[in-house]
Amino acid sequence: LQAGLEKLRDLPAETEDGQRIQLQVNTGLMTDITRSLERGAEGVGLYRTEIPFMVRDRFPSEEEQRVIYREQLAAFAPHPVTMRTLDVGGDKSLSYFPIEEDNPFLGWRGIRVTLDHPEIFMVQVRAMLKASEGHNNLRIMLPMVTSVTEVEDAQHFIHRAWLEVREEGVDIPMPEVGVMIEVPASVYQARALAQRVDFFSIGTNDLTQYLLAVDRNNRQVASLYNSYHPAVLHAILHVVEQAREEGKKVSVCGEMAGEPAAALLLMAMGVDALSMNASNLLKVKAAIRQVKMCFIRKLLSEVLAMDNAEVISAYVDLQLDKAG
Ligand code: PEP
Ligand code: MG
What we know:
There is one protein chain. The chain is α/β, with parallel strands linked by helices. It has 14 helices and 8 strands. It has helices spanning about 30-40, 50-55, 60-75, 110-115, 120-130, 150-165, 185-190, 190-195, 205-210, 230-245, 260-270, 280-290, 295-305, 310-324, and strands at about 20-25, 45-50, 80-85, 140, 175-180, 200, 250, 275. An 8-stranded parallel beta barrel has the order 1-2-3-4-5-6-7-8, surrounded by 6 helices. α11 (about 260-270) links the parallel β7 and β8 (about 275). α3 crosses α5, α11 (about 260-270) packs across α12 and α11 packs across α13 (about 295-305). The longest helix is centred in the middle third of the chain and has 20 residues, at about 150-165. The structure holds phosphoenolpyruvate and magnesium ion (MG). The site of phosphoenolpyruvate has 10 residues, from β2 and α9. The site of magnesium ion has 4 residues, from α9. This is phosphoenolpyruvate--protein phosphotransferase. Belongs to the PEP-utilizing enzyme family. It is found in: Cytoplasm. It comes from Alcanivorax nanhaiticus.
């Protein structure tokens, strides 16, 4: 743990004037559990289920998945654990399920793969549901959603899986189901999506990549990959506003959420939770505990009036430095 920050572990993530936000973690490996609990995480905002799939040489069975998922759910209970359904394709590949494409980021990835393979989806959702019995802290999240049809189809399968496991005697309520907002289409469909789901989580890693048409892993264009780009900031704000108008919770789980300055802007936009790598959690909490809402709201409104990512980034750093 970072020196000096561990004392923040059990203190709330709240501004000097008492505005609270939930700080959660992104997990994938078993080792993430201990690191997260040591830092006082209030649940998991993104459990990347593809990670246990990637470290194997075949699809894990329903029972194998149930055991893995139960460890996450049990470790964080009563806090929520947001399990993302399998997000392969793009930059995430499985050796035993090869996908060959010219444009993987625009290809068969995320929800597209699992809706084409309901047998993979059903096994995974059934395992999640069974794993949550007794804890009831499961939330299911769908990756790479671009249309309401995908949400409706996925909800249909989730409902069917829920009926099946209930029939088999597993006593669990229907979990909350949400979507990741990580492609431009979902930004412009935010209202319609919010009407159909329980929550949003904004995936700023992919959202930045797709809004700016900049490959998130290509060094050649890395200097163009900037989440402070006005297009990205305005897109996030729009999504937050739409979710709130529909009375739905919204969080951010991309790398931006774990970057203290960006986290403050996201908080000013009104997000309910920030989910990040455990290593960033106490740094973000420290930043939140040092500001007042009026300060970060003013900063946000100044930033939203600017039209240049580099200027925004420099301005935010300067203002936060000045504020100490
Ligand atoms: C994202 O796209 O911002 C995200 C959190 O998901 P991943 O990084 O796993 O694509
Ligand atoms: Mg993503």
